[in-house]
Amino acid sequence: MQRVDFDKFTIEDGLKLYEKDLFTLGKIANEIREKYHGRKTFFNINRHINPSNICKDVCKFCAFSAHRKNPNPYTLSIEECVEIAKEAHKKGAKEVHIVSAHNPEVGYGYYMNIVKEIKKELPDIHVKAFTAAEINFFSELSGKSYDEVLDDMIEAGVDSMPGGGAEIFDEEVRNKICKGKVSSENWLKIHELWHKRGKKSNATMLFGHIENRAHRIDHMLRLRRLQEKTGGFNAFIPLVYQTKNNYLNVREFLTGVEILKTVAVSRIILDNIPHIKAYWPTFTLNLALVAQEFGADDIDGTIQKESIQSSAGAASKNGLDMEELIFQIKDAGFIPVERDSLYNELRVYK
Which helix (H) or strand (E) segment is 275 a member of? Predict the structure, then answer.
């Protein structure tokens, strides 16, 4: 493919990429993928911890927070979170991924102390914690600035940030699906401040709801511009919207073709972000493996247990066995590579 001049790249140029047939688009994206990673497909051994589902926000796409469609509120104690992390570590987890609802009842210290206590018990485990949406909430809850919250996170032991809360950056769509949540401008600002501290994060995009292709391209271009500035994003994760148990009432699930085209387009536009993750809980494992031919090079990890996406219908509630994951990656024609949270290679399964 001829080198793209992204200084002049427009949303219309991105839409033209979508107009290409699937296999032509996949070939272009795969060339970029193989230039960076060859036939390697990355995964890690991780455990999701979701401390509470009580949330002050009412996002229409969310099936996790406690509301009429999920009338089972819970809040884990700090001790319970630590025990979950310790049990996961015994099973080989090298990362805990901590994302919670925005529960104003527990206080700011609750969130920081979860990390502190986990790090006290497991100093070597990587803690990936708190989305930009949570950090915005922490700022409102505590009266602290973003800078102060981020410094508190580092002091507590947070190693990297997940990419959640981005949803779709277009303000009009955002107003309809997650009004009151962190703004797109502040999501980007928080990640920029985190990167300035020498820390890494991921970036996500929720697609397949009421947004259109132009909104997706706009979202990717905003991420590209920030990455050019900071170089702090490890991975881009296009999350496929899950249709169950929420208030958006989107009846038709995206086609596999549209999902794969979006992965391919993201690999082309975000060629300055090293990794594209086909997050198997929202793709299904089979489609996540197919996406490895269309620009993706990562499928996330074993997870062990996950509550947010599975509440909306994803098949990720009890995670995935590592041996099965390795077998499936090999069977799809790729080389499984166990990585750490910052994409250092730990073991290559040839």
Answer: strand 275-276
